[in-house]
Q: What sequence folds into this?
């Protein structure tokens, strides 16, 4: 046993966040901590790391010293990063090795000004390198994939696969959780519940629980109907018995007492059934929360011609930084297109060029004149004085109701819908922007990292809405799971070109995409070998995530994984 929690409680004012947490954490555990925004996940992480006191309970560990590495959700304090320059141990050795794998090199030459102006991705990668370099017994990673592109995520998956210690991962990235954890800890209503397996296994178990609960609820409703019918019948008999006690008892010795006792038995039976019914209603199976179904105007994609957007030989660079060149592609009405590529390749710039907010160096982008376009940016406006109710006032009552329902399903309470947008959190503001875009009368949605600040449950509701949305979508996201579930084709940034790829992301990553201007057969074969290796590595990592060190086949899988990595290294 590495760590045990017993009856942990924590309140903030009159709000009880943790209500009797009981938890055993063992060496080698891979635990994914999930729950809706605001349920207390980060609070629990801060308590486990000693950064926050708890009100009641105890934390027990058999070790005299437990080395914990903690990646906070927002590593934004400049002093945490500037310390790197003052610590030659960190600048060299393990930290430098890890940082270089995360594409941060020669950090000892960085100026103080450079460190103060790190991007979100650089901050996350540097913080991760600092955590691993301490050789922790336990790592707690709070949203570690924030701002990481797919290369950074894959490297982190690799590091976790070889990490010998224990890991607790708070993440809204379903793809990442599926490949890194072997159990899910759900935090809800102040308590935790453990589920074996990765995130997909957890969702399957939760869905099965919901179906069983629905079945039990329906059976209970039938039983309640029987009880209600029995009560009605007993009341009828009771009323009749009372009448008979007055009418038939006249002229009969002892008749009045006989019919009165008969009536009382009926009354007692009614009371007994009423008590049974009340207990069933109070303590019985509750109806599962109804999943929202959004109704869209399915005629949206029938208006206008088939071709919605077309780019012809477009190029864009900023000074010496080339983003893309000589790129041509198209988007048809109703298509859901994922925009895929590493950080800094020009995905957001492309969206801005489509909107006319950013000029091109060469080429043209044609957007249908009839197209109604909505854009949800990573950077949302602040300080707005209008509330959501103000923004939807001109819509029909039905449209307003559907919009409010969608936002509640995304995790925005009704009482927040009449607060000025400028006074809401970034997460709430993002959800409202998404709700307005999805429920608007648009032909094309341009979405730039829309799932930032959304918890897992909100992401699933959002994903279902995108799947059902009848118009076209251009989706920029590092959420691989979302891309695979929603998008049926891709615009891929590769070798400074934007290329349209038919099929979903899984298909693209599993096989070699078509190459242009390849004349060297050795290079072609090497590229094919590399892509095959990547697919094999992903499969082995998926298997490793479901096993713990010491379990059957773990050593064989681990050895296979190391051999595949070496083969990839040998390919260069």
A:
């Amino acid at each position: 046993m590495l760590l045990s929690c017993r009856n942990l409680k924590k309140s903030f004012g009159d709000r009880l966040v943790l209500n009797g947490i009981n938890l055993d954490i063992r060496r080698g555990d891979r635990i994914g901590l999930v729950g809706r925004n605001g349920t207390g996940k980060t609070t629990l992480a801060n308590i486990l790391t000693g950064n926050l006191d708890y009100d009641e309970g105890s934390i027990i560990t058999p070790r005299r010293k437990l080395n914990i590495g903690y990646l906070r959700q927002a590593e934004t304090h400049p002093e945490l990063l500037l310390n790197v320059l003052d610590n030659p141990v960190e600048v060299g050795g393990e930290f430098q090795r890890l940082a270089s794998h995360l594409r941060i090199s020669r950090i000892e030459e960085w100026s103080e000004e450079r460190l103060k102006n790190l991007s979100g991705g650089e901050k996350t990668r540097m913080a991760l390198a600092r955590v691993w370099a301490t050789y922790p017994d336990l790592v707690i990673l709070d949203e570690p994939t924030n701002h990481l592109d797919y290369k950074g995520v894959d490297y982190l998956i690799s590091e976790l696969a070889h990490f010998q210690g224990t890991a607790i991962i708070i993440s809204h990235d379903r793809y990442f959780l599926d490949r890194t954890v072997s159990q899910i800890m759900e935090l809800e209503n102040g308590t935790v519940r453990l589920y074996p397996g990765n995130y997909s296994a957890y969702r399957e178990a939760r869905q099965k629980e919901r179906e069983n609960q629905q079945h039990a609820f329906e059976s209970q409703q039938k039983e309640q109907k029987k009880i209600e019918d029995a009560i009605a019948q007993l009341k009828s008999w009771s009323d009749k018995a009372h009448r008979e006690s007055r009418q038939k008892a006249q002229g009969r010795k002892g008749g009045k007492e006989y019919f009165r006792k008969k009536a009382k038995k009926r009354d007692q039976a009614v009371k007994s059934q009423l008590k049974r019914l009340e207990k069933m209603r109070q303590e019985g199976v509750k109806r599962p929360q109804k999943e929202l179904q959004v109704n869209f105007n399915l005629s949206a994609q029938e208006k206008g011609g088939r071709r919605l957007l077309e780019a012809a030989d477009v190029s864009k660079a900023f000074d010496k930084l080339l983003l893309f060149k000589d790129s041509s592609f198209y988007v048809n009405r109703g298509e859901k297109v994922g925009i895929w590529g590493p950080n800094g390749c020009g995905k957001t710039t492309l969206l801005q060029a489509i909107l006319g907010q950013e000029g091109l160096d060469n080429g043209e982008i044609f957007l249908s004149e009839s197209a109604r376009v909505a854009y949800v940016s990573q950077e949302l406006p602040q300080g707005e004085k209008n509330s959501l109710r103000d923004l939807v006032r001109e819509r029909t009552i039905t449209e307003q109701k559907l919009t409010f329902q969608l936002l509640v399903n995304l995790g925005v309470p009704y009482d927040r819908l009449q607060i000025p947008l400028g006074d809401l959190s970034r997460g709430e503001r993002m959800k409202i922007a998404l709700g307005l875009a999805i429920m608007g009368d648009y032909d094309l949605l341009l979405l730039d990292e829309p799932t930032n600040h959304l918890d897992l449950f909100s992401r699933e509701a959002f994903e279902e809405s995108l799947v059902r949305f009848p118009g076209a979508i251009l989706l920029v996201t590092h959420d691989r799971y979302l891309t695979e579930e929603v998008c049926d084709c891709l615009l891929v940034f590769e070798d400074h070109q934007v290329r349209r790829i038919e099929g979903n992301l899984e298909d693209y990553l599993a096989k070699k995409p078509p190459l242009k201007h390849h004349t060297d057969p050795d290079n072609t074969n090497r590229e094919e070998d590399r892509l095959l290796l990547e697919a094999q590595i992903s499969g082995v990592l998926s298997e490793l995530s479901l096993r713990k060190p010491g379990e059957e086949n773990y050593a064989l899988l681990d050895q296979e994984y190391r051999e595949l990595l070496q083969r990839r290294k040998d390919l260069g």
The CA atoms of residues 384 and 422 lie 4 Å apart.
